[in-house]
Amino acid sequence: MRNGIAGIDHVIIGVRDLERARMGWTRLGFTLTPRGRHLGQGTANYCIMFPRNYLELLGFVARDDFAHRLEAFLQRREGAMSVAFAPAGSAEEAATSLAALDLHPSAPRALGRQLELPEGTVVPRFSLLTLPPEETPALDCFLCGHLTPELVRRPEWLVHPNGVTGLRSIHILVEETASLLPAYDRLFGMHEVTTTDAVASVRAGSNRLLFSTPDDFATMHPGIDLDPDFPLPGIAALELAIAQRDATADYLTQWQIAYDEMPGGSLAVPAKEANGTILFLTEA
Predict the structure, then answer these.
(1) How far apart, in whole angstroms, are the C-alpha atoms of residue 9 and residue 54?
(2) In the chain, domain spans
(3) Which residue, 54, 95, 136, 272, is the most exposed by fewest CB within 10 angstroms?
(4) 91 touches 145 (CB < 8 A)
(5) Contact criterion met (CB below 8 Å) for 135 and 187
(6) Per DSSP, what are the bridge partners of residue 263?
(7) Whether the domain at 5-157 and the domain at 164-283 fall into the same CATH topology
(8) CB count, 10 Å around CB of 265?
(9) Per-residue pLDDT reduced to its tens digit, 119-128
(10) Could you tell me which of 278, 213, 206, 271 has the C-alpha nearest to residue 239?
(11) Who contacts 45 (Cβ-Cβ below 8 Å, separation ≥6)?
(12) CA distance 50 to 66
């Protein structure tokens, strides 16, 4: 991994009402962690953990300078807003690898959050670094190294009633794809970037970033209700792996959750059910 990136660590989903989002994603069939509060910041979260990656529902508990980006995003919409890549080693090692590619990573910075467990509060800790926006065009992202992984991956948090087992790919809508290719060729290597008439695909470990225009996205996913005013660029959909398609369909039907059956076999949960993000559920 010449860039020091192992894959996608998590996706941040910005929500206006954190407790309402918790109830909504629980209804969708996800097991959520207890609430976490970022130290020194006005944000809190609930996480949906999988063995190799996770989703983070992020909301306000107080307005402050650290929450400015979330506030600006939520003025436009709710939904998936940012991607955290997983470093192959430490954040410091990833920074060295990225700099060797003539990229410009920030110095790693520390982050902690209080996690409210029944037996008491613990403090998971992380090391973050960023790249300039022009080095990851059309994607708000950073690298997140876990310093205390044992605190955030308890076995009971990894099992979900809807059968979801992890994140597969992220669908990003853009005005056009051609101008993105040089930056992602440089970051991930030309062998990890492929293009068709409809989509530019970037492989990050076992995950993919899929960039397409709204028209091409609609062509690839017929029948999906896409907001005509969706702000570009932006993450429109997440593809999640499921263990058994029929079992997941039964769960969604039981809880009266709307979904569409896609030509390729995926189940598509509309954005209105998941805080503004379409969910494609695909049997692994």
Answers:
(1) 7
(2) 5-157, 164-283
(3) 272
(4) yes
(5) yes
(6) none
(7) yes
(8) 10
(9) 888 899 999 9
(10) 278
(11) 18, 35, 36, 38, 56, 57, 58, 59, 113
(12) 27
In terms of C-beta density within 10 A (0-12 exposed, 13-18 middle, 19 or more buried), how is residue 244 classed? exposed
pLDDT tens-digit readout, 203-257: 999 999 999 999 999 999 999 989 999 999 999 999 999 999 999 999 999 999 9
In CATH terms, the fold of domain 5-157 is 2,3-Dihydroxybiphenyl 1,2-Dioxygenase; domain 1 (3.10.180)
Instruction: Choose among 25, 260, 16, 6: nearest CA to 161.
Output: 25
- 68 pLDDT band, cuts 50/70/90, is confident
Q: Distances in Å between the alpha carbon of 153 and those of 156, 159, 221?
A: 8, 11, 33
Inter-residue contact 162 to 269 (CB < 8 Å): no
Q: Is 41 helix (H, G, I), strand (E, B) or coil?
A: coil
DSSP 118-162: TTEEE--EEEEE---GGGSTT--EEEEEES-GGGT--GGGS--TT
pLDDT band of residue 65 (cuts 50, 70, 90) is low
Integer angstrom CA distances of residue 152 from 48, 206, 215, 283: 10, 21, 39, 25
Q: Which long-range contacts (CB under 8 A, 24 or more apart) does 100-103 make?
A: 100/2, 101/2, 101/3, 101/186, 101/187, 102/186, 103/3, 103/131, 103/135, 103/186, 103/187
CB 171 within 8 A of CB 216: no
Q: Out of 3.40.50.720, 3.90.1140.10, 3.40.50.300, 3.10.180.10, which CATH number does the structure's domain 164-283 have?
A: 3.10.180.10
Percentage of the chain modeled with pLDDT above 90: 82
